[in-house]
Amino acid sequence: MRGSWRFARKILFAALGVLLLLVGIAGLVLPGPGLLIMFAGVAVLALEFEWAARRVDFIRDKAMDAAEYGVANWFRILISAAGAVGVFIAGIVWIIDPTIPEVWIIGNHLPFGGVVTGVSMIASSFIAFFLLGYSYRRFHKENRFRKAKAVGPT
Questions:
Q1: Which of 7, 29, 84, 118 could form a disulfide with 128 if both were Cys (CB 3.0 to 4.6 A apart)?
Q2: What is the C-alpha to C-alpha distance for residues 82 and 143, in angstroms, rounded to an integer?
Q3: What is the pLDDT of residues 18-56, one digit of tens each?
Q4: Where do the TM regions start and end (predicted)?
């Protein structure tokens, strides 16, 4: 009985991990936090598969490097914050789903317009603000990507 439970658990985690990966891939081209969902899928797969656990370590290291690089100076911080504000505003516009000028095959409404898309964009902006704050608190004081200040002769 124990072996069948272990097999069922492996199948369940594999199915959930692959589903999250597929949703994350869709989130790369549709509004939403695609990379985070893909990482969650790999993390779920890592619970049962060694190859996925190795990928999680690599992805986590690269994500931490990117987070540290992103808060190395105020310009990068402000650009990231402006991007999050822009996504928030776009989410509100997508919820309203206004009539737009007809463009080629798009028609007179926003593509994928509606509440679900708008809410996912707003959620993405909140995630971006949270991650920006986390990165700032963790990396800004001792950031290895900042240029070393020139020290003159003493």
A1: 84
A2: 22
A3: 999 998 888 777 766 677 788 889 999 999 998 898 888
A4: 36-53, 74-96, 116-136
